[in-house]
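Hi there. Long-time user, first ticket. I'm pasting a complex I've been working with (about 1910 residues overall). I'd like to know whether the download I got is complete or cut off, because the file seemed smaller than I expected. Thanks.
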Amino acid sequence: MEKEAPLEAPVWQRVVVRFAGDSGDGMQLTGNQFSLASVLAHRDISTLPEFPAEIRAPAGTLGGVSAFQIQVGGQDVLTPGDQPDVLVAMNPASLKVSLPELPRGALIIVNTDAFTPANLKKAGYTTNPLEDGSLRDYQVIPVPITRLNREAVKDVEGLDKKFIDRSKNFFALGLVYWLFDLKPDPTLAWIDRKFGKRNPAVAEANKRALMAGYNYGITAELFQHRYRIPSVDFPPGTYRRITGNEALAMGLVTAAQKAGKMLFYGAYPITPASDILHHLAPLRHYDVLTFQAEDEIAAMAAAVGAAFAGAFAAVGTSGPGMLLKAEALNLAVMAELPLVVIDVQRGGPSTGLPTKVEQADLLMALFGRNGESPLVVVAPSTPADAFDMAIEAFRLAVRAMTPVVLLSDGFLANSSEPWRIPDPEDIPPIPVRHPSVRNNGGRFLPYKRDPETLARPWAIPGTPGLEHRIGGLEKEPETGNVSYDPQHHQRMVKERAEKIERLAGVIPEAEVFGPEEGDLLVVGWGSTFGAIREAVRQAQDQGLSVAHMHLRYLNPMPRNVGQVLKRYKHVLVPELNMGQLAWLLQARYLVPVEKLNKVQGRPFKTVEILKAIEQMVDGR
Amino acid sequence: MEKEAPLEAPVWQRVVVRFAGDSGDGMQLTGNQFSLASVLAHRDISTLPEFPAEIRAPAGTLGGVSAFQIQVGGQDVLTPGDQPDVLVAMNPASLKVSLPELPRGALIIVNTDAFTPANLKKAGYTTNPLEDGSLRDYQVIPVPITRLNREAVKDVEGLDKKFIDRSKNFFALGLVYWLFDLKPDPTLAWIDRKFGKRNPAVAEANKRALMAGYNYGITAELFQHRYRIPSVDFPPGTYRRITGNEALAMGLVTAAQKAGKMLFYGAYPITPASDILHHLAPLRHYDVLTFQAEDEIAAMAAAVGAAFAGAFAAVGTSGPGMLLKAEALNLAVMAELPLVVIDVQRGGPSTGLPTKVEQADLLMALFGRNGESPLVVVAPSTPADAFDMAIEAFRLAVRAMTPVVLLSDGFLANSSEPWRIPDPEDIPPIPVRHPSVRNNGGRFLPYKRDPETLARPWAIPGTPGLEHRIGGLEKEPETGNVSYDPQHHQRMVKERAEKIERLAGVIPEAEVFGPEEGDLLVVGWGSTFGAIREAVRQAQDQGLSVAHMHLRYLNPMPRNVGQVLKRYKHVLVPELNMGQLAWLLQARYLVPVEKLNKVQGRPFKTVEILKAIEQMVDGR
Amino acid sequence: MTLTVNPKVLTKKDFASDQTVRWCPGCGDYAILSTVQKVFAQLGLPREKFVVVSGIGCSSRFPYYMNTYGFHTIHGRAPAVATGIKLANPDLSVWVVTGDGDALSIGGNHLIHAARRNADIKVLLFNNAIYGLTKGQLSPTSPRGMKTKSSPYGSVERPVNPIHLTLGAGATFVARTVDVFQSHMAETLEAAYRHKGFAFVEILQNCVIFNHGMWFPYTERDRRHDHVVYLEPGKPLRFGKAQEKGLVMKDGKMETVILGEDAAEEDLVVHDPSSPALAFMLGQLRDPLPVGVFYQVEQPTYEEWMYRQMEDVKRQKGKGDLKALYHAGDTWVVE
Amino acid sequence: MTLTVNPKVLTKKDFASDQTVRWCPGCGDYAILSTVQKVFAQLGLPREKFVVVSGIGCSSRFPYYMNTYGFHTIHGRAPAVATGIKLANPDLSVWVVTGDGDALSIGGNHLIHAARRNADIKVLLFNNAIYGLTKGQLSPTSPRGMKTKSSPYGSVERPVNPIHLTLGAGATFVARTVDVFQSHMAETLEAAYRHKGFAFVEILQNCVIFNHGMWFPYTERDRRHDHVVYLEPGKPLRFGKAQEKGLVMKDGKMETVILGEDAAEEDLVVHDPSSPALAFMLGQLRDPLPVGVFYQVEQPTYEEWMYRQMEDVKRQKGKGDLKALYHAGDTWVVE
Ligand SMILES: Cc1ncc(C[n+]2csc(CCOP(=O)(O)OP(=O)(O)O)c2C)c(N)n1
Ligand SMILES: Cc1ncc(C[n+]2csc(CCOP(=O)(O)OP(=O)(O)O)c2C)c(N)n1
Ligand code: SF4
Ligand code: SF4
Ligand SMILES: [Mg+2]
Ligand SMILES: [Mg+2]
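Hi, the file is complete. Here it is re-exported in full:
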């Protein structure tokens, strides 16, 4: 008989849960299942996986900890949460790594069986934290998970010994399902789909483990209350979870299809961008041609070639790869060919922190090429937004015949949120024109610009009569013939810049969240959206006069940015770098801005931004 | 008997001469000899060679014109001059190309023999400009140079026929020597040195041609006056002419010797930087090891290796090469190794205008690398200054254990000025310390910073007991061990930035030329120095309240820049780009600046800057 | 205006663009340009199907002079750009024109990877053993000891052997010809065109300005016969004015013999372009210098495999549908 | 504190750094690390003379585990960094550790140029035919058809042959060994060390996570003998459990024979590491797979030439003097 939690159990608008264990403990899978169960129960979520550094560290050590944090909520959830309310710690190392993040009073479910002297030592504990009183500020729920799980699966027929303990994450998951009043059914179904055929014994063990954990929750009376989270009123539609990298891959494919084009994706693997390639490579039947090049230079150069030949060409990489792509990207600027370059930013400089988030490639995207080399720079703000911005990137690229750099980052890439699946029919086509006749009487002029957009015609090889030559040298206007004439250079430099600037006429104005004018405007870009929006919302709830403007277009900037900036007494720019957007705004609009910078390989916490807001509005 | 020019002949403080002809006409040689004769006669000069585009165009065409412009003066000559007062045009094409540059009344010496129908056609003339009245605003001195020269050399014994016309540039030079009252002797001596042994007939022909031209000046009474230019009071010393590329090469060698080091110079040829390699390659006996790498990536990577191994390592390239070097340069930022990277800027973007000047790589030098990647950026302002800045670059590199980018350009590279040769003894040594004992008791800590400079120790392979490992991943402070710790990253990012900023404490304050405060401050950097200084001087002569601050240090900036900027009502920033320093100043100091931009592959003319000054000071 | 082009009536002239050719008078590049224009006219393909891609260098100005589609890209990257073009549109006939610096120095990696992938692109390497455009520095094919602007005391580098390098990289067609051997070049280019897959053709080229006479031992009319051997499949390796000399194999090495004196016709090595080891051995020879097709083997091309896979997947899974893509995995419905 | 080190007493342990080794349990890299440490200890060189340089990849973490000087550089560029180190200080023993992606994909150009220049650096390529560090994509040595994260329907690429590539590039020492062939690896590494000049050693390595078993046909104890042939200079090519098989040359190709049945010992090919053509032919063989030194030839090293030239010029011109440098050319005096 199920014992209900006490009636007075509070309703939580949001709860942050963190699953942490060794790399081998299946924490990513556990987190993903929990996310799925939550969204299927109509809760909003935002998730953040944390992998160990690239190479597998020895089991049980701090370096080997794998974690998955998720915020579940009954209203707009914008971040994976600052601090876990609930921690599931499968071993001492994961407890040690996670503890500094926990607020006092947090609930900690520990697998006591893993707190052996050997494991404690590997984690660098000299005494057992479960016994030495160091956890007295938390609600510790000790559960002998390994033992209970072994018990649960011991009778599964044909189960290979080595799989017995592998199901213990399902036990933990079951327990947490009970705690959050979530149905285990989707996970049971998933287990069947995943293992049912290939290995029925493993499927059975996992299912038993899950239910054993769930039932343990019912019977053991370990918790003072269950977490009741109201469900969200999502707009009607079909939903799925989506990560930034998935969204980019789908956005690119969509853009190509919306133009009736092949998608050419050139890539050289690099963390955290490789998954875009992994998502695209299976899509051969979508006319997706993925080209794994010998290096980033070749990936970029091949994309330039593919664009010249008429394909929708894109490349994806991270910081070090961007440097290698710069020269061929600059060629695309000069040749005025449309393509999309994705930079999934990670910690730098140099190899830096390959798996961690940072936003320090903004100025590089804008200025990291020799000569005056203007191009479009956009940055999605959430995983779902990445889908839209990938399409938008191609739309702008084709409109102005220009490369577009899309700045994602290591956080966006891997974090996920619910995505209301659009009807592909509702996505407007991307108009592409390839001329088939000469544009100047008897001659074809490859650099004769469209008077409105200043784009040159995209005439593609294979078209009879439009044979022409392009290249990286400066050109005579219209004919495109090589020219060293001073006036030609000046004019072409201006036109290349002007054509980008004119896009400001077709991109949306920047939206302001909050009062139209007031004490403080917080300006952000990229993946910090959630943390900033949340902080601004909380500040507004406190009655502070604070607004938020998030820039999805960095070049050109929306036409209203300058005016908006001037309507507030102060401007705060939080960034995961040393102040790059801040530089841009000061240089462009001569408006003094306050910077809030973090370079720790981690996203902002809401509270960090909130504090800065409070200081700026209250504090002076 | 020599006929003297009329006594009333005015004294010219400065005259601009331009020699122009076909690529095959030896105009560079002619210009160089004229420069030499001028400086030996104690005049100040500034020169600008203009080569045709890289590939030899057909003889006689506009594309094949080669020119050499020089300003000669009896006081500080800062630029090769806005407009030629005297043009020597060896063929129709060179006349056509040069004419737009000439002021009314300019003196044009033309080789009438070259104005054949065929040559006129190649130059695109439909009528002969010598006859159609189109030159009526100039003083045209028609000289049948080819014929006169043939006459002069016809009796030279053993002269191969094909060499007969090759001496006609010496005829023209002799004529101009007379016109400027310069002694032909240095050139006679040079001819002997150059051809005397190898080909005495050619030597003889050239000498006869030179003297025939000179004597023709005496006898033909072609000119209304000779140009009398007073000699300059140069400070005592021994002088030579020096180009920017020569100065950089000598500066690098000097720096290495001043540290008792080998100079390792890694390069991949590229215009306009290749000459640095050509100047260094013969210096094997100066312990100069030039490594022509397979590409710029390897040149840079090898330099990083050489620096690790303890050499003074430098590389030189131009824009496209900088992009390829960026990744290994970023490694040097992370590994904190000292080295010097020279970027001889040229027109961009992409391949752009390979032989032309531009200043559009400034923001790339600062921001063109992934992550927060601070390094030192300096820019010499004149050819001679390039010598000092090359040494300074190494001094700063070693002091802070950092890469330094030195921004030269295509104008600096090839233009020349007199250089007072320093006594090498007077150049202070560059102190280098390689530790030989462990810096932390029993352990060596490769990232333990010097408390004053924040530099890490430069311990080099081969030193017993200091074995250590470095790399491009983020590090734990002090130990340098790989670390993904958020706090370590934040701290290291800050320390890398701080160590560069601290150099502001040891570099000189920016000098201000002109009033300490006033209406207008003109701020420049790099090779525009001469044109700006000259324009400011002229404006000051008009009584305008204008000062000039020229930045040789772009990062960190001299500590007084912010204050200086605020002491003037207006700030004008002339640049050969679309406004990169302007952008920096606005971003850094929030001071509004007016931009004067030129992207034509050419240096500023003094008058262009002067006009802008007048408009800003008078005009409002 | 109609733009129909009848490939049958094309002539060399049709392939000349309106741009003035800007190489130095006497440069070997002229002869190559002329032959390429002639050969293209004879291939039976309309002009718009040709794309000529180059890097940077004197040689790389080539596309500007061809009245086809052309792309003068950046230094060393032409094979990668060409790969992108060919993958995006396998219908095009894609030619790369490159120099010894462009292809073998900065572009070495792209060359070897294009070779191993076997995309159907044709690479013409104009080898003048010098950097022409940048005015005379050492190139990877400059011989040791050569004095250049960047090696005033003589090169201290071992040069690269382009035939060996491309063989080592797995090229399926490797050949050599010479700027002044007009008809041989024409045959070789046509063979390259007919080869299905990556084709590499080294063309020895004279740079009159910075490396004049580099190949004279092989090109001067009076010496040529004694120092050049023409490779013809199935034929014994004979050379000399009267074909009086030949090559035999001795202790795993090639040796020159006089026919009738040192050896008989049967003793001569017979050229077999399908043997990589023979090709490698021939690649070592400098005197006589072999010209012609060293190696040729038929293999599926990269784009063939790629498109075949795309078709296979379409056949198996059906043409991709965006709706299905979006809905893959777990979804939930809110009503 | 005194820092004298006595090279005679060095042991494997002396070459182990204090860092925890972070490869996956079972990774082939462990065995290689252990052998390298052992071999280094035996070479008679003090620790401070070793520099281990790497690029990026699982394999490229190697320097962190070696208690020598070490530089974990950037992806693909280790041979170039190593060249700079060697040129700046020819006294050092410079080793490059690299992976199949690092050396053959992004770093291909540096590898072939280091090979041709013949700088005295030793390149150890850990070939696991996969990108380990980035979690399992196609590498240039992955066989056609191989399914990886980036080739879910099977690779459509022709793989590169590292032996052929380095031979084609002109390497003076080309060898292969296997992670689990401990003593063979030790011998091979020592031979590489003793070779004066560039030495390339391919080491087949098992990646337990992303490409487990790639080399099992050659490494499993029961199959090994039949599928691996050890190359020994001057020795006939024999293999098999009882050395009962051998290799003969037939129509320019290698063929396996059973000794006593198909052929006699005298018919077998005798290994001659000085023959490039033989090395090239052996490079083609996949079954049996040759291990050992394919090719070795002595040539002056790049740094030797370079320093010799520096000395020559010094001898001719005298040691450079700054004053003379500044005063070269035309000068004038102002008093
Ligand atoms: C990234 C980059 N580096 C260097 C250059 C300068 N550059 C142009 S062409 C060239 C070499 C030309 O030699 P080669 O390829 O042999 O062609 P050739 O001129 O001899 O035909 C170099 C070094 C460049 N354009 N881009
Ligand atoms: C410029 C750049 N591009 C891409 C990467 C990502 N990356 C790191 S290692 C690697 C390949 C590793 O494969 P391999 O060289 O075979 O080494 P392994 O991990 O298998 O030992 C890649 C693509 C990078 N670090 N830098
Ligand atoms: S420099 Fe040499 S290769 Fe270049 S165009 Fe002139 S002759 Fe030809
Ligand atoms: S991923 Fe493969 S290569 Fe890398 S450490 Fe693990 S087993 Fe070794
Ligand atoms: Mg060349
Ligand atoms: Mg690998």
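A couple of notes from our side: The two ends of chain D are 57 Å apart (CA to CA). Confidence is low (pLDDT under 50) at residues 1-5 of chain D.
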